[in-house]
Amino acid sequence: MFLAVAEGGTVRAAADMLAVNHATIIRGIGRLEEKLSTKLFDKLPSGYKLTDAGADIVELAGQMSSASAQIEAKIFGRDQSISGPLRLTLPVSFATDLLMPTLADFSAAYPNIALEIIGSGSVVNLSNREADVALRVVIGNGAPPDNLYGTRLGGFHTGYYVRRDLLEVRSKPVAWLLGANEAVPSDWQPAGGITTTATPIRFAEMRSQYEAARAGMGISILPCFLGDADPLLARVPGGPVARAGDIWLLTHADTRRTKRVRLLCDQIHAAMRGFAPRLAGQVDGGGAELA
């Protein structure tokens, strides 16, 4: 709790991080300050600020937390039972639009494994057991951290998509639908008579961007497995299909030998091999080959 408040800066942020009530955080910090007979935080209108005493011990507290997580990981790595908790983190679109049938099959096959599915694009700390298995897209030619055990599952491809009926009725220019850090393409322009507006519309996360494209708001860059499978969407004429990065299945070196971790990884690995043509933008949702 001390580390969560130190990192988050507020009790509410710490409570959200640890998934507990904010009153629990306040009581916990109070007990720690009482135990140490010193004040660790100054309570300001903007949040909690470390005192000099708090700043002196925050690094040691981090070392204690890391050591505790390593002990837990070592013990978890020896667990060969097919029961107990198992946390998987993966991007929301992979969970909702690609792997949910696979995860449903896994849950049905191993009902005593308490699977927790964390749909998020945020990087989690596998060393601290924030998750046991992570499916992640590593952009460009990068590689996962050295302290993780990774299996490359294949390339991740994207394309440009627009609501299908906009290809038939081109009465007005359409907007570019872009993520926070995406730029308007400069190396190609839509073909087939499509024109675009000068001002893009931006989104903080991909799911809203996808729904905006489905609603006919404009042209969006989307994962091929998502755009090709949606009957409302079509690829923009002249738009490239590009490899954005690689998909990796990640575990921690200490926990990858846990039986339920291996079972989940094997099932995801097999499913992703079958999805390779979709991920590369080679087939639509019905299995038809695309040009």
Mean pLDDT score: 85
The total number of structural domains is 3
Strand percentage:
25-35%
- Largest sheet report: 9 strands, mixed
Which structural class should the secondary elements be placed in?
Answer: alpha/beta
- Structural shape: globular
Ends distance: 54 Å
Let me know the number of strands.
11
User: What portion of residues is helical?
Assistant: 25-40%
Number of helices in the DSSP assignment? 9
Order of helices and strands: HHHEEHEHEEEEEHEHEEHH
Question: Notable features of this structure?
Answer:
single chain, 291 residues, alpha/beta, Arc Repressor Mutant, subunit A, D-Maltodextrin-Binding Protein, domain 2, 3 domains, nine-stranded mixed sheet, 9 helices
Could you explain how this protein is built, in words?
- By secondary structure, this protein is an alpha/beta fold.
- It folds into 3 domains: 2-77, Arc Repressor Mutant, subunit A; 84-156 and 245-279, Periplasmic binding protein-like II (D-Maltodextrin-Binding Protein, domain 2); 157-242, 3-Layer(aba) Sandwich (D-Maltodextrin-Binding Protein, domain 2), CATH 3.40.190.10.
- The protein has helices spanning 2-8, 11-18, 22-36, 52-77, 92-109, 206-214, 224-227, 259-274, 276-279; strands at residues 41-44, 47-50, 84-90, 113-119, 133-139, 148-163, 175-179, 201-203, 218-223, 233-235, 242-252.
- Strands 3, 4, 5, 6, 7, 8, 9, 10 and 11 form a 9-stranded mixed sheet that branches.
- The chain is globular and about 75 Å long.
- The protein starts with a helix and ends in a 12-residue tail after the last helix.
- 28% of the residues are buried.
- The model has no long low-confidence stretch (mean pLDDT 85).
